[in-house]
Design a protein that fits this description.
Strand content: 15-25%
Radius of gyration: 22 Å
Shape: globular
Helix content: 40-55%
Structural class: alpha/beta
């Protein structure tokens, strides 16, 4: 809860959690907010799907375009593909698509916690006034980001540069193996625990056994041991672990 407080642009008036155990932490972090608990089954959220979207290298835009993101060592590189407009002026269509991309990029930078230099390659912006509109759209979309990113301007090659101060590790650094799209054992361990919890809601009387890779088993006995114990307390029974060599994760 304290880490969450640091990432919010303003303190909330209300906070809701599915786990009763976290309510005291929320009350301590947000003393003026109305704190409540809602059963996990009532949440219309697929957390694993949200993580997958936030780690995806490409995101679709309305109208057939896409945003491609790559976190390199020196900078985050973003390429915008506006697609092929079905009607209207190609310049106006590109402007509208780039402005929509700018709003989405601002959201993704914050969601993924990308830090440092960011270089964006918008496409089809030959007119200076159109470039100005896109940069203003991006600045407005970034205004609520607590990291306070700064748009630096356009390069001679037509790229828009900005800098977003680093605040901890990015989501990709925390969840993926370096230089790959494969998840780290700690991410797989928590994903496995969430899977058991989802299955337990549908079949609460079952006894659970997880088949996991040696790496994931090590994490569940170490870094994620507290999360495993919390799940077992919640289910009212022990979750058995079976180590299986050669499997991916669990």
């Amino acid at each position: 809860a304290p880490a969450l407080r640091l990432r919010l642009p303003a303190l909330p008036e209300r906070a809701t959690a599915d786990d009763v155990a976290i309510l005291p932490d929320l009350r301590g972090a947000f003393p003026d907010a109305a704190i409540s608990q809602r059963p996990a089954a009532a949440w219309p959220i697929d957390l694993d799907a949200l993580f997958a979207a936030a780690l995806a290298p490409s995101l679709a835009l309305p109208g057939g375009g896409a945003i491609h993101l790559e976190e390199a060592r020196g900078a985050t590189i973003i390429d915008v593909d506006t697609g092929t407009p079905e009607r209207g002026s190609s310049a106006r269509a590109a402007l509208a698509a780039n402005r929509a991309a700018a709003q989405r990029i601002a959201r993704e930078l914050r969601l993924r916690n990308c830090g440092g230099a960011v270089v964006i390659d918008f496409v089809g912006l030959d007119r200076r006034d159109h470039r100005d509109q896109v940069s203003r759209t991006l600045e407005a979309a970034l205004a609520g980001d607590p990291a306070q990113p700064r748009v630096l301007g356009w390069t001679r090659l037509g790229h828009l540069e900005l800098v977003r101060p680093r605040r901890g590790r990015s989501l990709a650094d925390a969840m993926l193996r370096p230089g790959t799209r494969a998840k780290q054992p700690i991410a797989l361990a928590h994903e496995a625990l969430r899977r058991v919890l989802r299955e337990a809601r549908a079949n609460p009387a079952a006894t659970w056994r997880m088949s996991v890779s040696p790496e994931v088993e090590t994490v569940l006995r170490g870094e994620a041991a507290a999360a495993l114990r919390a799940l077992e307390t919640r289910l009212g029974r022990r979750v058995a672990l079976a180590v299986v060599a050669g499997i991916e994760g669990f």
